[in-house]
Design goal:
12 strands, alpha+beta, three-stranded antiparallel β-sheet
Length: 445
């Protein structure tokens, strides 16, 4: 008879919920270190498993993907995202992805590059030499401007503070949603539930207003929203998306394209401030390839070290730090029984730090990303954008945004961490800096 995976003893009522909630990344790394590549544990009444080997991760995300649905965390995220790409399942997910794929075609994405570099150039004028800024907040503001232009064809600068505040309120709700019995708690008139509902209403108002404006003018503005309004499901009934479907996809891209990229950039600035020799190599590449001009999509191939810095930053601080899948049938993983309804976690924050695949895994070392290293690295030892049929549809969009933004800003600015400022992670949906990243801006000549 196949046995359950090994794992820690849990309290009868809460399981390992308290330890997981206190520091989920540290807890998951402990499980992998102490119990191996397949571990079982409990979060309240919910049976859980952690899987931490690239071959097994591939089996879950790719080979046997149909045996799993999204985990309960993202199911609960439907309260904000609706039935968007991140949360929908099966036939609905396949249909929506098929209809949205043209929006992320290579040629169309290339057109967004000019917007990205332009918005980053505008951002470089926000700061004053010697001023103290929270880089995490500043990157949120910048990526909000980029997603506003590329998604909605709109300048959302005047609404940036309101939108960011609403997103913050909505994301904070996920602290509550990760608790045992969260489905019950979310129906109670608790203060965080009321704040979440108000935040969602504010975000809905922004998105539905922009949908209505696009429908009124009926223009193709070259943005994602124009494409979503025009696309038809040619493989089935030829139908267009409803406003609600467009709202759900727009909200998903809004969150994913804004939040994750901003966090990746914030962690990158922090890491560069701690490694001046790496920062100097970055500056040398930018000087040689760009000589002070704003980069374009055509420059991406001439910025290999910039890309390595982004890759290494997302290895150490992956914006999407964990993926959850719920077993919809009993299955076996590496010889262990996984009962139906078990939530199986695979964590980039665990695997990306695994010494089996990375020498000195805690060290920030962009130079490790050589073609030889990448050719020998197992596919799912590095997966910041997930993998399989649910791999992030905007992966190439994100890579381009990260590289062009970093290249534009790093030519003009350096950032130095404020002495004594605490750096800690806050893993919710994405991997945020818990206390922000307060830094002193230094204008480069």
């Amino acid at each position: 008879m196949t046995t359950l995976p090994p794992g820690p003893k849990s309290t009868l009522l809460l399981g390992s919920a308290r330890r997981f909630r206190k520091d989920p990344i540290d807890f998951l790394r402990m499980l992998a270190r102490d119990y191996g590549d397949v571990v079982s544990f409990q979060i309240g009444p919910q049976p859980m498993a952690l899987v931490n080997h690239p071959d097994l991760i591939r089996d879950i995300l790719v080979t046997n993907a149909k045996q799993f649905h999204k985990g309960r965390g993202l199911q609960r995220a439907k309260r904000l995202l609706g039935e968007g790409l991140l949360t929908s399942e099966d036939a609905r997910h396949l249909r929506q992805r098929r209809m949205m794929q043209p929006a992320f075609h290579r040629q169309r994405i290339a057109e967004y590059g000019r917007v990205m570099a332009s918005e980053a150039e505008r951002a470089s004028e926000w700061w004053q030499d010697g001023a103290t800024v929270d880089v995490a907040t500043e990157m949120m503001r910048l990526t909000l401007g980029i997603v506003g232009k590329t998604l909605f064809g709109a300048d959302v600068e005047n609404e940036a503070d309101e939108i960011s505040g609403a997103l913050d309120e909505a994301i904070q709700m996920f602290h509550l949603l990760m608790l045992p019995f969260a489905d019950v708690l979310a129906r109670l008139p608790l203060p965080p539930v009321r704040r979440f509902n108000a935040a969602r209403a504010r975000l809905d108002a922004v998105i539905y207003r922009m949908i209505a404006e696009h429908r009124r003018t009926n223009d193709d503005r070259g943005d994602l929203l124009s494409m979503l309004l025009a696309v038809r499901d040619e493989e089935e009934d030829g139908a267009r998306m409803t406003d609600e479907q467009i709202r759900d996809e727009a909200m998903t891209i809004f969150l994913a394209g804004h939040e994750t990229t901003a966090n990746a950039l914030a962690w990158t600035w922090y890491l560069l401030s701690q490694h001046p020799e790496i920062e100097a190599t970055l500056h040398a590449e930018l000087a040689g390839a760009l000589n002070g001009r704003v980069p374009s999509v055509d420059d991406l191939s001439n910025l290999p070290y910039t890309r390595k810095i982004i890759a290494e930053s997302m290895r150490l601080y992956p914006p999407a730090w964990v993926i959850g899948r719920r077993a919809i049938t009993p299955c076996t993983i590496n010889g262990y029984a996984i009962p139906k309804e078990t939530v199986v976690l695979v964590s980039q924050s665990v695997t990306h730090h695994d010494a089996r695949f990375y020498d000195d895994p805690e060290r920030f070392d962009p130079s490790r990303w050589t073609p030889e290293f990448e050719s020998t690295l197992p596919k799912f030892a590095y997966y910041p954008f997930g993998g399989g049929p649910r791999v992030c549809i905007g992966e190439q969009f994100a890579w381009m945004e990260l590289i062009l933004t970093l290249a534009t800003l790093a030519q003009r600015w350096r950032f130095h961490l404020v002495p004594g400022h605490p750096i800690a992670t806050m893993p919710i949906i994405t991997l945020r800096p818990r206390h922000g990243v307060r830094m002193t801006a230094e204008k480069r000549p």
